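Sequence, please.
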């Protein structure tokens, strides 16, 4: 018998039970069974839904269009961020690209037993910081990207999603460690001349060839050591220096310690060890007061031992300018150069190794006899080079020497104030600075009296310095400038300084000041109603710079004073330093009298290169051809042909400002089938011929 159809959704609950009572009993049972089964199914489903555990990443299906390809996955909870130390971030962004410019040169620091990597992402123009483990796995987890937005503002990406600060999981200590390491690397870069590898190499050669004997003996009168390769005095203490050369797998330990990267595959190469020790300790075979530096064949320091103990913190013991061993090694190297790399002949000619110019320019300047200046450069074994000085070598010396004297590095005697680029003399009773500045005046005097030699220093000082020098020559005082003279000297260059308006205010306190000028005065705690206080501020700030100009004036010969007074500061600067960089002027100096079509064509190419290549390339060309990195009013660059084989590179003669060029187009560089354009090949060969520095000391 077929059961009647029951439509539950069409009847109320009261009607349902009324109908059920009027139904025969056997049908009531069937209906109740069906109802109980339905209720049980619903109850079981609800139980399974609420009782079963959920996965953390379970999310309800989205009803919106598919956006998974353009939006990052939703996070279970927002990243907790904080404001970082902006000084640390600024240091990291200032130096990070230079010293950690790719993932292969990442820096590594460790904080609370967790390692972190820092590297520059060129494609995103951002610094990345990531845990070392995720970095090795090339994962995007735990990765923070930082961009500099200018004006002290930064933007951040964490795991490739934008956030409003740095995650709290990245404490400031991590950024501080990276900033500190980058500052050390920057210091090392700026002071790299202190540990010039070429100096170590030529010292090695000298030690091998010139053993010296010592007389230290034991209590019985017997010599404790018969010989030591080299003895170098440093103040009241003598140091022994010796080296050993070895064949061994040379690891890059120290370099990688500095860079923050470890290497599992050391490469085999020649290396040698330079040892420096106090002479008495050396003689007594002690392991005290001893420095050992292991270097590879390129001269790069690989490891450092102090008293035979390997030192990992090389930056602390060796590269820190305040460290004792830094001062000792620098002093020993400089003493070696003073005794071996620069001298004068009985006739007054100067013999000098190029490293003495870069390492101890003040000593070279002091050694020069200006009345008999002829220059002979030395090879690494201190034998004379072949070049004969017909003014070209003198120009080489003066330009190179001036650049090193006034490069502003911390190791120099003459200190340069960074914002104005002017020399400073803070203590006129200093034992080193006044003599060095006075000798600089003698160099300037030589340039002024030897214009026919085109002897100039190159553009090493701003024109404002020569304004101060003119003022000192006008005053012609035998004593240091007074406060009033300092104020007047400042007034002469007020237009070239940022705060020149201070001079006008001191002279006329009724001068109307802008809000910004008032703010500057208040920021420096200066009373607007007290012009004398502003005057004291000017004098205190500018006294060292005016004193330096006065000391240079003391080095000029009296016969030049009238000439200095008669010239404008710009003309005086050009006479001593050469003309400012001007492409059109330099190109106009290039001439040829040759009728050879190839030479005329290459002369035109050379002019075009001067007009289009970067400034450093043009200066290098000038140095290669003339000995100067600038031109003077009388400079002429002469292009001459030579009929040597086409494979010969161009050749310069600095004494005569000449450049010899083959009369046929060169075939050098065409074997690789990558250069077919003759002009491009000419530039390549000329660039190859020009030394990267004035002298190759390798």
């Amino acid at each position: 018998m077929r059961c009647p159809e029951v439509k539950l959704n069409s009847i109320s609950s009261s009607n349902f039970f009324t109908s059920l009572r009027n139904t025969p009993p056997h049908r009531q049972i069937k209906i109740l069974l069906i109802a109980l089964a339905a209720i049980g199914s619903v109850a079981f489903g609800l139980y399974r839904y609420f009782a079963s555990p959920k996965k953390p990443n379970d999310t309800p299906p989205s009803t919106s269009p598919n956006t998974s390809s353009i939006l990052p996955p939703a996070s279970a909870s927002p990243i907790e961020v904080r404001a970082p130390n902006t000084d640390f971030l600024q240091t990291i962004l200032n130096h990070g690209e230079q010293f950690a410019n790719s993932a292969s040169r990442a820096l590594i620091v460790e904080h609370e037993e967790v390692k972190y990597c820092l590297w520059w992402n060129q494609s995103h123009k951002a610094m990345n910081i990531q845990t070392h483990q995720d970095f090795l796995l090339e994962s995007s987890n735990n990765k923070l990207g930082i961009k500099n937005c200018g004006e002290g503002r930064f933007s951040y990406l964490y795991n490739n999603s934008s956030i409003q600060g740095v995650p709290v999981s990245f404490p400031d200590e991590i950024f501080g460690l990276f900033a500190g390491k980058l500052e050390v690397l920057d210091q090392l870069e700026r002071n790299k001349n202190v540990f010039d590898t070429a100096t170590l190499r030529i010292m090695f050669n000298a030690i091998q060839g010139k053993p010296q004997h010592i007389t230290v003996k034991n209590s019985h009168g017997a010599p404790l050591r018969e010989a030591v390769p080299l003895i170098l005095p440093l103040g009241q203490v003598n140091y022994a220096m010796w080296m050993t050369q070895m064949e061994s797998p040379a690891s890059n330990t120290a370099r990688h310690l500095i860079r923050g990267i470890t290497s599992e595959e050391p490469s085999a190469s020649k290396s040698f060890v330079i040892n420096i020790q106090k002479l008495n300790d050396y003689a007594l075979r002690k392991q005290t007061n001893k420095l050992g530096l292991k270097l590879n064949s390129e001269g790069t320091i690989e490891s450092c031992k102090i008293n035979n103990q390997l030192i990992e913190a090389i930056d602390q013991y060796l590269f820190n300018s305040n460290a004792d061993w830094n001062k000792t090694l620098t002093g020993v190297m400089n003493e070696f150069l003073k005794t071996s790399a620069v001298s004068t002949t009985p006739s007054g000619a100067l013999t000098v190794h190029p490293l003495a110019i870069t390492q101890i320019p003040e000593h070279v300047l002091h050694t020069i006899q200006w009345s008999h200046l002829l220059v002979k450069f030395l090879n690494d074994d201190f034998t004379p080079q072949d070049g004969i000085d017909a003014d070209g070598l003198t120009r080489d010396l003066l330009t190179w020497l001036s650049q090193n004297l006034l490069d502003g590095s911390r190791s120099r005697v003459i200190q340069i104030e960074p914002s104005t680029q002017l020399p400073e003399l803070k203590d006129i009773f200093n034992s080193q600075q006044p003599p060095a500045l006075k000798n600089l005046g003698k160099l300037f005097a030589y340039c002024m009296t030897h214009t026919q030699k085109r002897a100039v220093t190159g553009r090493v000082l701003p024109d404002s310095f020569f304004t101060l020098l003119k003022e000192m020559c006008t005053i012609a005082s035998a004593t240091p400038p007074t406060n009033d003279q300092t104020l007047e000297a400042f007034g002469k260059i007020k237009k070239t300084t940022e705060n020149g308006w201070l001079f006008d205010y001191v002279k006329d306190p009724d001068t109307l000041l802008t809000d910004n000028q008032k703010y500057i005065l208040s920021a420096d705690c200066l009373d607007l109603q007290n012009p004398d206080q502003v005057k004291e501020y000017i004098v205190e700030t500018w006294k060292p710079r005016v004193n330096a100009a006065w000391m240079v004036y003391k080095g000029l010969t009296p016969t030049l004073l009238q000439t200095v007074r008669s010239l404008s500061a710009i003309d005086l600067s050009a006479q001593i330093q050469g003309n400012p960089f001007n492409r059109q002027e330099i190109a106009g100096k290039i001439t040829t009298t040759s009728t050879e079509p190839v030479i005329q064509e290459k002369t035109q190419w050379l002019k075009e290169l001067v007009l289009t290549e970067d400034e450093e390339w043009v200066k290098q060309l000038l140095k290669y051809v003339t000995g100067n990195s600038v031109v003077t009013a009388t400079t002429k660059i002469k292009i001459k042909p030579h009929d040597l084989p086409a494979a010969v590179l161009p050749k310069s003669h600095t004494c005569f400002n000449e450049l010899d060029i083959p009369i046929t187009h060169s075939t050098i560089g065409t074997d690789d089938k990558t250069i077919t354009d003759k002009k491009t090949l000419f530039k390549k060969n000329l660039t190859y011929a020009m030394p990267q520095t004035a002298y190759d000391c390798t």
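The mean pLDDT is 78.
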